[in-house]
């Protein structure tokens, strides 16, 4: 009875830990809507259009499958595309006439602006980047990259690139999402105490001696032994 009771207790603890881990992972998951907009050479520019809805978890620990305790690990991140709307370009259009109704087929652009767009305020919610429309061409798989702040988990920028499809290596030709978590860099050592000599001057670090400076006496002893041995052999 005691053995069965302990097994039941252990199983309950494992289930509770798994449920708490999954709950923590789900609560830290977020969504970002990435939009594209043709870069127009005239004043009339088409409004941004939704490209993909991405779910990401900047605090996801890929090793344990749960929310990571440290938020500055750039490799502990997960992202997936929930929905994707491939842009359709009008081959008969031109780059200078990029105005339109804001939906359906876009005029033929050369460059596209990519970022997180907020329709409620009609402003970009992140920094934007510019990519060529050729990234959506035949033989390329779009890869959407989100730059995320390690502390807050908010998207600070978005970018896109087209990865050439190699049918011999993979059969997954769909778009992919990549998460780049910005981790804080090394900080300078401030207020480091200064060591002063008795005369009040700064103590300079003593340079480390070379191997020759440390073991010169071994070389000298070897030379003396060689000379003494050579003299006796001559006699």
TrEMBL record:
The keyword Signal appears for this protein: yes
Organism this protein belongs to: Microdochium trichocladiopsis
UniProt name for this protein: ER membrane protein complex subunit 10
Lineage, opening ranks: Eukaryota, Fungi, Dikarya, Ascomycota, Pezizomycotina
Domain of life of the source: Eukaryota
Alphabetically ordered keywords of this record: Signal
Signal peptide positions on this chain: 1-23
């Amino acid at each position: 009875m005691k053995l069965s009771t302990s097994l039941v207790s252990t199983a309950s603890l494992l289930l509770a830990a798994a449920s708490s881990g999954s709950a923590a992972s789900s609560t830290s998951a977020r969504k970002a809507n990435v939009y594209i907009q043709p870069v127009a050479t005239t004043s009339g520019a088409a409004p941004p259009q939704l490209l993909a809805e991405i779910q990401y978890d900047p605090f996801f620990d890929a090793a344990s499958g749960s929310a990571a305790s440290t938020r500055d690990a750039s490799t502990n991140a997960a992202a997936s595309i929930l929905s994707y709307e491939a842009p359709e370009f009008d081959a008969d259009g031109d780059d200078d006439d990029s105005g339109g109704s804001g939906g359906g087929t876009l005029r033929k652009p050369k460059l596209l602006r990519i970022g997180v767009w907020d329709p409620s305020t009609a402003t970009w919610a992140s920094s934007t980047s510019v990519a060529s429309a050729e990234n959506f061409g035949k033989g390329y798989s779009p890869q959407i990259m989100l730059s995320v702040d390690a502390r807050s988990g908010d998207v600070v920028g978005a970018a896109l690139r087209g990865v050439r499809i190699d049918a011999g290596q993979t059969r997954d030709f769909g778009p992919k999402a990549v998460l780049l978590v910005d981790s804080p860099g090394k900080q300078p050592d401030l207020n480091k105490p200064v060591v002063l000599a008795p005369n009040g001057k700064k103590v300079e670090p003593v340079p480390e001696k070379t191997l020759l400076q440390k073991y010169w006496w071994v070389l000298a002893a070897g030379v003396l032994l060689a000379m003494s041995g050579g003299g006796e052999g001559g006699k």
